[in-house]
Batch of 2 targets.
Target 1
Amino acid sequence: AQSVAQPEDQVNVAEGNPLTVKCTYSVSGNPYLFWYVQYPNRGLQFLLKYITGDNLVKGSYGFEAEFNKSQTSFHLKKPSALVSDSALYFCAVRDPFSGGYNKLIFGAGTRLAVHP
Amino acid sequence: AAGVIQSPRHLIKEKRETATLKCYPIPRHDTVYWYQQGPGQDPQFLISFYEKMQSDKGSIPDRFSAQQFSDYHSELNMSSLELGDSALYFCASSPRTSGGASTDTQYFGPGTRLTVL
């Protein structure tokens, strides 16, 4: 069964420092991977996705993510964190080969707190 | 840029009542998805529609039904509401690309917060 794991409930980073939010996945075929961010009382905002090609994907607001097939990971990164990046981050996967290809399977979410 | 519109944004109902949530996708998006996010939980897929036909079904209770209309907007109908139905309900939409539905990005609306008392 397809699944996504975000091993950290919360990540604390000082403003200006690099940040990493971890995500690992388990799917039967080649995964399609997504990152979304959720601000309080707001919907999910799309950040970036990996479908195929270059393992380093660049997205919105200076975020990027690296797909690592051998480690089945898709960690979200940003070189220099901003206080405004503080939010809830969700990793999601789509496995087109296991049926139900429309749905996104989300991880539990990681709360990012960036301190001034 | 236009986003997904959901109405109402907040809804309070009593147990055993019914509720209807509406979703208006981004213009030229033909696929609509519904998700339920309980307190402190990740979003769970309920159901999706493509070109007015149900395309996929997740963990949607039999008390819930949904449809997509000719203008591509969608409605989620919820009957015999239970306390456990209290959640944030998201609608998302995506365009149909040449890569197929699996590669499409889903763009989410702000959600409808349903509280069942």
Target 2
Amino acid sequence: AQSVTQLGSHVSVSEGALVLLRCNYSSSVPPYLFWYVQYPNQGLQLLLKYTTGATLVKGINGFEAEFKKSETSFHLTKPSAHMSDAAEYFCAVSRLDDKIIFGKGTRLHILP
Amino acid sequence: DAGVTQSPTHLIKTRGQQVTLRCSPISGHKSVSWYQQVLGQGPQFIFQYYEKEERGRGNFPDRFSARQFPNYSSELNVNALLLGDSALYLCASSLLGAAGNTIYFGEGSWLTVV
């Protein structure tokens, strides 16, 4: 069975600081991995996804994530946080079809 | 092009009632999925439909049902509503419903059961 674990339900960073949101997955076969962002009272927006190929994936809004098979991780990073990055972030995995298994989410707070 | 559209955006129902939520996928997308997002949690998969056939079902009771129409739009029905059904219901569409496809979500329908 697939599952996703996001470390830290809340993460606070100062504006301009590095953003690091952690995600570990379990899957019996190589997975497809996603990061979605959800702003208050809105639906989900895809930030980036990993399917095959290059393990460093670049997404929108300056975010990127690296697929590390040996660590079963897919951590999300952004070099410099902006106030507009404050939102809920979900790591997710899918395998055989586009059914997605989501983590519980990490709320990112940006401190001025 | 319009994204995934859902209606209604907000609704309040009483315990025991029935509700129907509607979703129109992105033009050309043949796969529609439904997710339930309870406050403070990640979305949970309910159903996936592809070419009007149910392809997958999550761990939800039989009170939940769905269908997809020839124009690929979809409805989610929930009968005998419980307080615990209060959630954001998200519809998502993708082109082929295949692994790794980019999936696009709508803004969701907020259901409150009182």
